[in-house]
Protein 1
Amino acid sequence: MKILVCISNVPDTTTKITFTDNNTQFNTNGVQFILNPYDEIALARAIELTEGNGSVTVINVGEANTEPTIRKALAIGATDAVRINALPHDAWFVAKQIAEYAKQGGFDLILTGRESIDYNGAKVAGMVGELLDIPSVSVIKKLDVSGDSATVEREIEGGKEILTIPFPFIAGTAEGVAEPKIPNMRGIMSARTKPLQVIEPVAVTNNVEVTAYETPAPRGQVKLVKADETASLVDLLHTEAKVI
Amino acid sequence: MPVLVYTENAGGKFKKSIFEVVSYARAIADAQNTSLTAISIGDVSADELATLGKYGADKVLNVSNAKLKSFINQAYASVVAEAAKSEDADIVVLSNSFSGRGLAPRIGVKLDAGVADGAVSLPELSGGKFSIKKTAFSGKAFATVELTSAKKVIALTPNSYKVVDKGTSAKVEDFTVDVKESDFKAMVKEIVQSTDKVSLPDAEIVVSGGRGLKGPENWGMVEELANLLGGATACSKPVSDAGWRPHSEHVGQTGIAVSPNLYIAIGISGAIQHLAGISRSKVIVVINKDPEAPFFKVADYGIVGDAFEVVPKLIEAVKAYKATA
């Protein structure tokens, strides 16, 4: 079984988000970048599914500074890696690069995280699916393989759906699919020598441009209510906040 | 060129978030001086379809086809894209729901359209530019994106736009599309709906618990408060990691981002990752025995106290309020 796992290099979850250049650029100064948490889940499941029988290629669209994240994926257990040498402009740009690479790869399964924690678009899986004309399914909580198809559990509002999908297809994974794996010393050592191929990007016409950023407006001072005056809180929520 | 809005249904009924999407799409159509066509796929009654007119749809396209009974990304995207072409629509609007997030990128590729996901505002139109504000960095910020393509797809975040009852009506027409067989490779085998619970992404009130509740056996009061208020239950990441609550209730940067009118946090300290997922709540209430908990810095109302004493009293107070309301 041959699996392609798409990984993003994102700011650490503890990052305080700020902007520069008149709020037009994300301020990367002092920011620690990590492997996108949802992609870690996808990677962990891919490794479990291919143990002793197959390969896991990780693909990242990024410039040379994303290589520590790619090496971490290799240390966790990916077989090899591909870096498309470009700044990831947006989901459309990233999806085009991944689809272009995947066309030649003969992958049974392509996994992404359900979304990246920076732009939260959750678009790459669907776009790659459409570009390759294969099924896509997002926010999956469970992924089991049997023969040449898989059974997945998909989250829906107020419940879940169970689907069967023949290979090849692409899926966006969430918590529940697998527990993220921590690289061990052997993995870290072997990651240094695993193949990491660098490919130049294909040309893409952009159709979305970020023109400005802003942070949420600060909230006012908290209004404290005494612990034995819960009726006052209910009254405030009704008369002042008008939310009940 | 009309605006097209995709109106997903749950068991043949439209949810409030769909009326928000139709109202939002109506406002866009008005700004573009054009009409609004809604498309519905699945088994929805004529009366239910007609309700879309109240919120501004001029016309409703009804796609009722046994093969399209279950939601399949590929097939649904084909239908919506065909409808957009047939209507000559250059803007497609849908909900940023689980299904909407699966559909929007596929429709975007089919129509060669830029996609604005997680939209929280109406488009700004100035100097020929079409810009929309969306959430970014898991709720820690907003990004304004300009869609530069001729066709555009917008996925609206639930609870981001008010429902506007226009009191108008729509004509309902059947719409037929030949969907290719290869669009049905994925097959839905089973749907497990927890009908007794309010869906977290759509909820207007969310009652959420953290490690301060000490164990899953203490969630009864969280559920009771949520039920009384007609809200959904949620939890922090450590709680879902510990298996006290299902992952589907985990709210935060690596869980669900919510934007309810009221978010009640019980026994949650307010780590930056949790605050990211709830920052778009209109009103935040925090109950925590630690007066230094960071959550109090972003809360609108707070009670410093032991959850096991405060929450039962709050339940009684809500019951008393409801008895007199």
Protein 2
Amino acid sequence: MYQYDHYDQAMVDARVEEFRDQTRRRLEGKITEDQFKPLRLMNGLYLQLHAYMLRVAIPYGTLNSAQMHALADIADKYDRGYGHFTTRQNIQYNWIKLEDAPDLLADLAKVEMHAIQTSGNCIRNISSDHFAGAAADELIDPRPYAELLRQWSSFHPEFSYLPRKFKIAVIASETDRAAMKLHDIGIQIVKNDAGEIGAAFYVGGGMGRTPMIAPLIRDFVPLDHLVTYAEACLRVYNRYGRRDNKYKARIKILVHELGAEEYTRQVEEEFQHLLDQGVEPPRAELERIIPYFADPAFDDASKDAIDRSNPDFADWVDANTHPHKRDGYVSAVISLKPVGGIPGDASAHQMHVMADLAREYSFDECRVMHTQNIVLPHVRKSELYALWQKLESEGLGAPNLDTIEDIIACPGLDYCSLANARSIPVAQKISERFAAKGRTKELGELKLKISGCINACGHHHAGHIGILGVDKKGTENYQLLLGGSEAQDTALAKITGPGFDEEGIVDAVETATDVYLSNRENGERFLDTYRRIGMAPFKEALYD
Amino acid sequence: MKILTGNDLKTGAVVWWDGTGWSLHVNDAVDTGERADEIAASEESARRVNAPYALEATRDENGVRPAHIKDRVRALGPTVRPDLTLKPKDPEAMDWVI
């Protein structure tokens, strides 16, 4: 895991003191809210439905136990005892007092964390595969490159005032676990025919009101030109992205309007121009970073067999562990989706527990997943049972990864000032319905994602089943979508038809799963059945 | 009736104009009539409130009820965490929002 050097620490500490002074001046009336708002947003502090909300950056979702403990302490000291892990691999606190915010940021800085660039029209937190550095199917660990991009993008003067916010994801597996093609830039580390490692660039994806899948604009960029190529992509966007209409300002609109071919031509031209400008960090910087992501001291003698005699444990192993690159190890997912729970929420106590488990079982490391769960990336198979027992005792052992109970849901109208409908109660009712009927396991992989407004923080466009909450004459209404995917088979879901009320949407989800089960062939996934039979049978069952 | 709400500048708490100051309880909200904008401007410049805005509401025997669900959620607290609402022990509280 990357550790701050004295430059990093000095920058973050200086920013805390700068914000302390800005906050003092605001509270003393020396600056107006119009003057202060952009300053607090630069430090991740929003004014939401009930209070100030702080979004803390977790680069590529990676945390050590001290950082997770600190997040728990912040939840207790400055909030109401909990935090919300987000689809951007960050954490948000919902009940922050403005007068406390500088002290909170100072506490974060003590564990090498901050909230810089978690808001605003800048390059946001770089996200990555939550199994990075551990996955069996990985080409290399993508996180040193994510870290290089993080350092390049932090405080980048040219890209601090882009037309809109900008999100980058980096992966290094064929299996996309970071929704890479639904980012402004998705970078996949690849190997070319000559056996060289490089990066494929997908540019212009995103969800929101105009969802688009990013086209591949270059299939191989040498890794020692990675940052330069990213800079070229940003430069063209910064130059031509629309600033007159925020709804048309994302890079996906520019790429769509110009056409991927013309956008690529301009990027290539800019890239050639930049190649001799010294944009790329020296190789020595990458070599300095890489050791921070070196493998931990794996035990070569760790046994590969798992005692599956306890059926509940076996279910959890089947659902919540992922193959590791080393024999004798797995990555273990801690579900933050208990039946009837709030997706992504964790109490301070649970955060302390997860921190302790990371230290005891996973070389002091855990990760936030974009699906709002937590990963312990390196767990000995021989210690899985003990880990599971502790998770069970803390309400963290739900065996539901990638099932209909593993719902992504944005905060919705319960917390967010942008939302039109509540997301969380719908998620709770669906997980309760399917758990009560005992159908979750039978349904297999089924990704359900709920957003409370068109901004799509709940990734409804990418759900095998998606739900979008809208305002219909002052009441909550929920549209059902089918057929989306954020994985390597990225697809955008389609609306089935007229929306439903809160109870109706839960029934509609059940109806859709009934159609799936009655049409399923050869154990195919919901998504594959939908792709094979199309929308018509679902519409017929839902609306006739 | 037209009532006025905002967030307390220091704490961010949702507050309602009660005629002389700001209350945490929507039932204390008063009809501001045509004075909402004037009060909002004055209170904002005095640094007592942030992002104030006026909204339609009704008053009946149960108290003041904002017209739109978003403002009812603001008034009560998140409907998914009764322990964090202004009526943590009232099992009927959520019905008030919907």
Protein 3
Amino acid sequence: MTALQVFVDGIGLYAPGLDGWTHARAVLAAPQTYRATPLQLPSIDSLPAAERRRLGVAVKLAMAVAYDAAQASSADLQHLGTVFASSAGDCDNCHQILESLASPDRAISPTRFHNSVHNAAAGYWSIATGSQRPSTSLSAQDAGFGAALLEAASQIHSNAQSCLLVVFDTPYPEPLHTLRSVTHAFGVALLLTPVRSASTLCGLTISLTQTPIHPMPIPELEAMRGNVPAARALPLLSALATTQPQTLVIEYLQGLNLSITLQA
Amino acid sequence: MQPLLINTFTTTTALGRGLTDTLSALRAQRSGLQARSWETVDLPTCLGEVDGLDAINLRADMQAFDCRNNRLAQLALEQDGFMQSVQTAAEHYGRQRIGVFLGSSTSGILSSEQAYRQRDPVSGALPASHSYRHTHNMFSVADFVRHYADLQGPACVVSTACSSSAKVFGIAQRMIGCGLIDAAVVGGVDSLCLTTVYGFNSLQLISNRPCMPFDAQRDGISIGEGAAFILLERADQAQTDDLLLSGVGESSDAHHMSSPHPEGRGARLAMQAALDMAGLQPQTIGYINLHGTATPSNDAVEDLGVTAVFGTNTPCSSTKGHTGHTLGAAGSVEAVICALALRHDFLPGGVGTRTPDPRLHCNYLLTNQEQAITHALSNSFGFGGSNCSLLFSRKRA
């Protein structure tokens, strides 16, 4: 079975009750201390104020976790490739467009339209950082984290360059919320590198498996894992919180999961 | 990179169903663009519509996925023996060893557009019959194809606007290269919807006549719909005349969400990266299928990029005058057109273009040329500054 090795040099994480990696690491290492508090995002100072005002929660969340993961190490943002994944991108923006199209005049603002592309977060990130490196934006419904991790690892294996992985989801407003019940906003970013360095937190060896997944130890976090596609990363993030050597399985596609062995 | 086999492919667009119709339309320089009414669109525009989608019935076990986008996917999968080839590959490699990587920009969003017109007047609820997961969600078409063909390997949808289904070749190439899979179904499917028609209209990027790529009078795009599928396999024992994917080049503009970099910086990087991966010099490329959307700025910027890398001699054309801009499907549709050019020793002249813009300097073909070539490049550039160039080759004796 093919296994791909990468190294984790930085982590970004925001979700309700998980306020940045420093806070989240302590919570995930002692999960009974988890308290569901509203999502708190830092201000994104690197974008011009005019651009910032146009951004919805989804893109702000993606940018926040991306900056945290990248700045945790000495990564050169201008030369960093990226893999973004989200089940549905900016759900608020999508809802607004659908409402406009159902109205008599069907007027969509040009900004709403260009923000509707699934790669909007990746586009804003490349503009903010000036990076012309390749960037891709994926969707795999509930399997987005697994798809993005596999893509980032196979990129690193192919080109021996660092890669910033960014996975985010936010809830749809009604009426789509009833049909797609993503319950929380959740954003996670990992700065992944091909070789161990002074900033490396741990190594990961990733392979495809049919072994059942590892759930979360408390009901609140297990519900988050099950209800938010990006939160399928939680068992891995829990392992990263302690960096104890271990093998865990996270959910990917139906009948196909990812086995991850963490080396300190 | 290790080249990959691309001998098995198909496409369905406004030019017709499958390769025979597509090739005969290209040879006849026939456009599939027409001024016509579609759905409830009340704008004067020409569309590249695939005829007969409303009459397609999804296979009995796939009914949950019913929407225009997946009907188009099924219609295309069943052309040119493509499904049979996929099943042969699945038996040869194993179902878990074949990935499904497809590009789309809007998936089946038309279904949600229609459902939002049928909300309950009191509760605001959508009709109970609307299945978001199987239609509108961006992953829907890959989920559909994976189940339709009973494939069990890795899968995702790439959605980077108009470069989406070019970039899927890169995903497959990397996953095959690192041994996770042995083969992949790649491609793109995008179907007509109100979001793109009214969205591009809001940006004043739609022409009200059939689009005129690289013409002095060009004034915007014509939206089309299309699907294309390609089976990528290891090419350990490639034979003479086999068709190959030989290079993938990707870059970002890092400039603007909906305007290309004014000097074509990102486009140039993508083309050069594809050449570098293939280990080829620019003068060996026999044909370039341009992104060529027919907006004034996109064509001008692409021309700068092409002439900076290739000079002014390499034959080029855009086939968006034939098919319209099939958006997230364009990368794969045009990959198939490059494969046809390589297989049939034939370079398609663009249609819709009458007077090439004298300010543009690439060697734009207005008529077809019968000519054997060994390497062809296809450009795809999207909103958000996402660029991808693909290099295809024919193995010569």
